[in-house]
């Protein structure tokens, strides 16, 4: 999972759906003029237990793979915010949009209802609408497990009378 690739894919999706400006929130830049869209990465969650693959014997590396949900917030600002954001959310059902997202390792899962966040800004009301969209991706890392070069097995075998019949250590070398 490469966050830059994910951010770029999500920005490209949003930007292709509108003629309005699209910006990432949490960046140092002036706010664009209304109307516009903003995107914000909300969180990433592990889904289930990660799978740890067994090394194939030619390497000491194990591959760990797991599903992740990425949640983004999409917000529209200014006049016509509701219809603009409805079009943005609906676009996630387009096969062409889903194919472009899949090409970047993202699968659209679901979205929340659109919420009205209209509020007063200075002397006017600013129309705002928001929804969150969930996308699934995979995280994959490797771990160097090392190798076992020798195994020492120690044992003591007792006779029925309690005396020691055998005591010793066996060393099994690497093949």
Q: Could you describe the 3D structure shown?
A:
The chain is an alpha+beta fold and 175 residues long. The protein has a single domain (3-147), classed as 2-Layer Sandwich (STM4215-like). Helix content is 19%, strand content 50%. The protein is built from 3 helices and 10 strands, in the order αβββααβββββββ. The chain has helices spanning 3-16, 81-91, 95-103, and strands spanning 21-24, 36-52, 61-77, 107-111, 115-116, 119-121, 124-126, 128-144, 150-158, 164-173. Strands 1, 2, 3, 4, 5 and 8 form a 6-stranded mixed sheet that branches. It has a two-stranded antiparallel ribbon with strand order 6-7. A hairpin with a 5-residue loop joins strand 9 (150-158) and strand 10 (164-173). The longest helix is centred in the first third of the chain and has 14 residues, at 3-16. The radius of gyration is 28 Å and the shape is elongated. The protein starts with a helix and ends with a strand. The model has no long low-confidence stretch (mean pLDDT 89).
């Amino acid at each position: 999972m490469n966050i830059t690739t994910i951010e770029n894919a999500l920005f490209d999706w949003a930007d292709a759906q509108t003629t309005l400006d699209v910006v990432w929130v949490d960046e140092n830049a002036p706010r664009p003029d209304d109307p516009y869209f903003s995107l914000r990465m909300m969180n990433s969650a592990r889904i289930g237990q990660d799978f740890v693959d067994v090394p194939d014997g030619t390497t000491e590396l194990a591959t760990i793979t797991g599903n992740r949900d990425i949640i983004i917030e999409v917000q529209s600002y200014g006049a016509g915010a509701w219809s603009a954001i409805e079009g943005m959310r609906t676009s996630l059902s387009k096969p062409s949009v889903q194919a472009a997202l899949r090409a970047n390792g993202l699968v659209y899962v679901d979205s929340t209802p659109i919420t009205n966040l209209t509020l007063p800004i200075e002397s006017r009301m600013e129309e705002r609408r928001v929804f969150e969209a969930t996308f699934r991706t995979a995280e994959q890392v490797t771990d160097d497990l090392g190798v076992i070069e020798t195994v020492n097995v120690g044992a003591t075998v007792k006779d029925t009378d309690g005396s020691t019949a055998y005591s010793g250590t066996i060393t099994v070398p690497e093949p």
